[in-house]
Please model this.
Amino acid sequence: MDLLKERLATVSDLDSASSVLSWDQQTYMPAGGVAGRAEQRATLNRLSHEILASTEIAQLLDAAGEPEPGTDTAAIIRLTRREHERATKLPSRLVAEISRATTLAEPAWEQARAASDFPMFAPHLEKILGLQREAVEHLGYEDHPYDALLDRYEPGSRKARLETMFDDLKRGTADMVRGTSAHSEEVREAPLHGKFDELKQEEFGRMISTSFGYDWDRGRQDRAVHPFCINFGGPGDVRMTTRFDPDWLSPALFATLHETGHALYEQGVDPAYSRTPISGGASLGLHESQSRLWENVVGRSLPFWRHFYPRLQKAFPETLGSADLETFYRAVNAARPSEIRVEADELTYNLHVALRFELEVALIEGSLTVSDLPDAWNAKMKEHIGIVPKNDADGVLQDSHWAIGYFGYFPTYTMGNILSLQLFDAALEAQPGIFDDMEHGEFGVLLGWLRENVHRHGKKYEPDDLIERATGRPLDVQPYLRYLGEKFGALYGIS
Ligand code: ZN
Model:
């Protein structure tokens, strides 16, 4: 077991080193470094993959036998077996081809989006889709080819279960979406637009991250085009990035709250798990539950802003001096049908995800062709959200996920939204004073509950087990629907 742990620590170190290079690439690296950096990261990733797929690891896993169930060692063996299997199932030729195709597709997607020209991107998507379908055949599946892709991001989840989840959500929110779409949102959102000094925005965001419990001795925040959170093999160095718009408060503010949620999860994992496969968040859905909980359930709530709004007004007296708390609260919760997923409100966000899920399932099973994709996109926009994008740049070309080969990734966003409420409700049941604390800018009890029930366990439990342990039941859409109903019902006077 010691030798196996030593090899796994090497894998973790190689992956961490690759992550540091990735962080540097997205924050400080000059443009001229791209080609060299691609080689450096490919080398580290290859070395790590070679160890995981090696016959030595297979022998060490055999020798490990069946450790006592429920122990950390048992979890390490379980995850290593899965990673080893996955690493050996995909031929290295296919891994290299996917890497090459996506490296070429990403800049092509950027150009196609800039020109709003889908045919420019189509051959790349065609190629990537073919490789994904080939990968699915190697990985294997029981019910549906999509499950093999989903399993990379959300172990144990299945297409059939997601269909039920999205159907429940669509049915549960349809009346609210209709009820809010009649309102004019420009007036409602006005307080968020105006002059917002960047340094003041940064200072305000840091103050909130600190009050949530982010530990700056084990992290830092830098600027990047796309906000993200990254860590290096353990909870000792968990970094965030954000971006600022001097004329619009929302992007930096809510990205900072969101990334702080991801970072709190990573900073809370048991340090003893560092450099093992059970370090880090349990799944993408669970990770997203933490970012959404702090961004939306806390950060778009009235108790939260009762405490922080006077401080925000003090930071931006000219822009926000005349908008009262209620006006600001309505602004950060303005709901309306929109074209762009990342700018969507809490109510319509999951409809954007449902659309992507339905389309990528159809692409993977072969019932939809790449050339028919833009029309299918627009038809689904009409069906789910009630509007048709004015062009493909704001439609089918808006996300980078398919260009970088992330098929099966989108649904984890919605799972995160649903879980954020399921976990928050469980925390509230155990600690009814959480809202009172929030009004005083205190979050220690909420964070403590999340640490105890979610964070510290890392990947020790399978996502389904962790959810059941923390909340007493499997993934459940009802708390989320209830939350949306109460919140938007009150905001828009609809039932
Ligand atoms: Zn996120």
